[in-house]
Design a protein that fits this description.
alpha+beta, 4-stranded antiparallel beta sheet, 1 helix
C-alpha cells in the first residue's frame, strides 16, 4: 500500500516523518481533511489562511493542500481541499 505524508505547513510548520498508508490518493485526501479538522478543533489558533496540511506521496510530490478548519464544510466530509 502506498505511503502518504501529512505535513503541517504555514505559520508553524512540522514535517510528517512517518507517514500513513492509504489505498489511493482519494483516501489520502480524506485522511488529510480529518487531520486538518482535528488540528483546527484542538488548536483553534491554528485556523489561519496561511496554515494547511500538505499531502505528499512517497516520491515527495505535492498532491493536496488542505486548509486548517475548526468546522466541517457543509456537504463534505472535511475541509475543502485545493490542488497545489
Amino acid at each position: 500500500m502506498p505511503r502518504y505524508f501529512f505535513h503541517l505547513a504555514g505559520w508553524l510548520p512540522a514535517n510528517d516523518l512517518i507517514g500513513h498508508e492509504c489505498i489511493n490518493d482519494e483516501e489520502a485526501r480524506e485522511h488529510g481533511s480529518f487531520i486538518a479538522h482535528r488540528v483546527g478543533t484542538e488548536k483553534p489558533d491554528m485556523v489561519r489562511e496561511e496554515n494547511f496540511i500538505l499531502v505528499t506521496n512517497e516520491a515527495g510530490e505535492e498532491l493536496f493542500k488542505i486548509p486548517i478548519a475548526s468546522i466541517l464544510s457543509a456537504g463534505t466530509e472535511g475541509p475543502l481541499a485545493y490542488e497545489r
